Amino acid sequence: MAGWRWWRRDAPLLSVTADTGSGPVVVMIHGIASSSVTFVHLVPLLEADHRVITIDILGFGASPSPEGATYTLDEHAAALDRTIRSLGLRAPFTLVGHSLGSLIAARYASTHRRALNRLVLVSSPIYLPPAVLGDPLDRASMGAYFTVYEFLRSNPVFTQRTAAALAAVAPIKNVLELTEKNWQPFMLSLQNAIESQTTLADLARVAVPVDLVYGALDPFLAPGGLTIVQQLRHVRTHRVPGVAHLVRPKLAQAVARVLREPPAALD
């Protein structure tokens, strides 16, 4: 608890990597082992009629990696909160999160109800303990994610080499970066934010419309988690055929369309 009190009082400022365009404000945060380059195909689709702000999350891209950080969702969200407050935004805005960024965005939205007018989650890895799932296939699938993530955390050399190989063939340049420099933020964010998440509970507390946009071929999408999210009355889901996890042009176009649609009405 002492560490969390410190973060509440003095969370670090994150790097605001872009602030472009004018109009309704859209703030974007990326996922694990990445940076704001995640949104290279999305920002140009919006900046003509939106003010688009991209922010690197704690420990990644150009943002700091503070000594003693444990990279829980609370710490990520506290740093995001301080950074957003530093921008002096005067009206509610839309928050877009990709991958781990979507989990951070859900935590922020659950505790800052007046700050947002909309929450958009993209490629969200929404997991929950396998034991709570009734369907045996969903339970086995969910368990497999945790097994793989534990292996990745426990084998840094393998994980970094694999990430480097994937980055070399990734369709978006520099979208994946995992080195010794950001290994600690990666490993702890994986363990303390993705694996230990309570995103379903966070979404249940969100007081604004939520859109979840995902690719039909996304390997990080857990069917059991998606099924439960779809039952939340204030959440709309948008399945994009033929795309996977990264925000490539087709997924970027789908997200831009969602952002231009009227949000779902709250009951």
UniProtKB/TrEMBL annotation:
<feature type="domain" description="AB hydrolase-1">
    <location>
        <begin position="24"/>
        <end position="246"/>
    </location>
</feature>
<dbReference type="InterPro" id="IPR050266">
    <property type="entry name" value="AB_hydrolase_sf"/>
</dbReference>
<dbReference type="GO" id="GO:0003824">
    <property type="term" value="F:catalytic activity"/>
</dbReference>
<dbReference type="InterPro" id="IPR029058">
    <property type="entry name" value="AB_hydrolase_fold"/>
</dbReference>
<protein>
    <submittedName>
        <fullName>Pimeloyl-ACP methyl ester carboxylesterase</fullName>
    </submittedName>
</protein>
<dbReference type="InterPro" id="IPR000073">
    <property type="entry name" value="AB_hydrolase_1"/>
</dbReference>
<dbReference type="GO" id="GO:0016020">
    <property type="term" value="C:membrane"/>
</dbReference>
<dbReference type="Pfam" id="PF00561">
    <property type="entry name" value="Abhydrolase_1"/>
</dbReference>
